[in-house]
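Many introductory courses stop at the sequence. We go one step further.
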Amino acid sequence: MSVYKPKGREHYVVDFQCGGRRFCISTTATTKRAAEQIQVAERERAKREIAAERAAAAAFRGEAPLTLQAAFERYWNEAGQHHANSATTFTDIGRIVGYFGGARRLDTITDPDVTTLVAWRRGQTVKGRIKLKDGSPAPLVAPATVNRSTVDLLRKLFTHARRKWKLALPEQPDWTAHRLEERGELVREIKAGAQESAIGERLREGYRDLWRFALASGLRLAECFLSWDQIDWEAGTITVVQKGSRCHTIPLTRDMKAILASCRGHHPEHVFCYVAKRTRDERERGKRYPVTYEDMKSQWRRHVKGKLSLELRFHDTRHTRATRLLRQTGNLKAVQRLLGHADIDTTARFYAHVTLDDVREALDRDTNSRQKSRRKTVTPS
């Protein structure tokens, strides 16, 4: 029986086979005729779905061209969903597929195609807005955003296809030529004292613990969502996975140990958790739940950028830790080790302003010293 109403139920169910699969779908139909119409539509949808899956499978066996839709679906399953900011990756994938069309063959995307994609993307405004809250025109997306949401993502897809799927893509674009020039990374520092205290007071428990741990450790936001098995109390270390899937181990300081100790007993697996204030979205008021990447970003936007009106990114927490360490020690190698930079040139590029400050202070001290010396040599007439 392919269309039937289960005993005690108001709505019909359609049950059919297509392509060797069985589909059993609950409907909102209360009449058999309406249910039969739904069955026809569901059969057609199932046929299209199976045909697309078979086409994708044939493409990966080398029996048919690989479409952009099929390539991105597999890339998402294998890599994209595991990105630190996977929600952004998913949005960017949808944007590119929507621009080219899912049926576009991956091997036909060449330099002119990427050029027009970049031009189209850089003409868009931030979050698609026309005006900001103050009524001023919304700005265009930044060159760095254009690069990451178009050129860099396509490059990752092509690289993944060549290395993991062993596909030949001889006409792949020259990615470097398409990247827009970006402004050098602006390094902001959280001011010790009132500003640092204000942030700590504004953030809720759990989010505050995570932020204070980031400030003490210099880890990136994506690296701060710790589980207890990452902490080696006996050795006094924490091991995280950094960009490029590299393991990075840092020592536990007294500050870090104190923060972690305050979180013990909150959750059996996750370190940083918050208490739900109300029951919603499968969360029960009064219970603790792990802080997530998107939760932390939302809290930062709402409380630090919004209520405190501070032009600070969460990533500036990492810069602050590194800047303070460099000022205290003058040891650029120690900063590189803390941050996990593979190349010390990267560390030097981002923290050159600290060493310039040291030079300025040294020059000022020398100037003051010479002025005092001249005053001492002057004798009254």
